[in-house]
Amino acid sequence: MGFSQALLVYVFVSIHLGVSQHFLRLRPSPSEHLPVPDLKEDPDPEYDPREQDLVERTLRKRLGSYFDPNFMSISSPVSVNQSVQETQVKLPGPIPNEIKKLDLSETPYGRRVKVGKKARRKFLQWLWTYTHCPVVYSWKDLGVRFWPRYIKEGNCFNERSCSFPEGMFCKPIKSITKTFLRWYCQGFLRQKYCTWITVQYPIISECKCSC
Questions:
Q1: Is the separation of the CB atoms in 57 and 40 below 8 Å?
Q2: What whole-number distance in Å separates Cα of residue 35 and Cα of residue 145?
Q3: pTM of the model
């Protein structure tokens, strides 16, 4: 499932839930921007799962192979609301071909500049480091109405411009989806019926320097 499709599934579920829980909606308006905006929940605890609805063994069986410990956590991680130490701050691999193929010996005015192999290699490495856009992961608490309630969410590193000269910034270009359980209630108060349903949650997996 692609970038926009995954988000649309999530938006659809959120809007569908809003039919029975009018407080539940995405904020801001649904769009293709990631990470997913926080949900505004009905604060009434009557819509929360009860203790007997949170039996780990039962929920693990229901989620099955979709449970991914690399991106999900049942209990509160030590680093909730903080960047994960294994953030991709290092270059993920060799210098891309579009940078390797740069001809540093020619200027826009046709004048040739002599550049040694060592200097060229160091400059290209610097350029790759400067323009590289790592994904910064941090743990997010989705609340008791999601299971597992903690997700490792990706964000594009944006503490500075990624272009030279400045002006461009890191933006998401790819995402992956993870399947969670969502506590879903139909009806109101004593007439309501609640159960766990599966929803897909898109997570940024790759960023690129762009306008």
A1: no
A2: 19
A3: 0.69
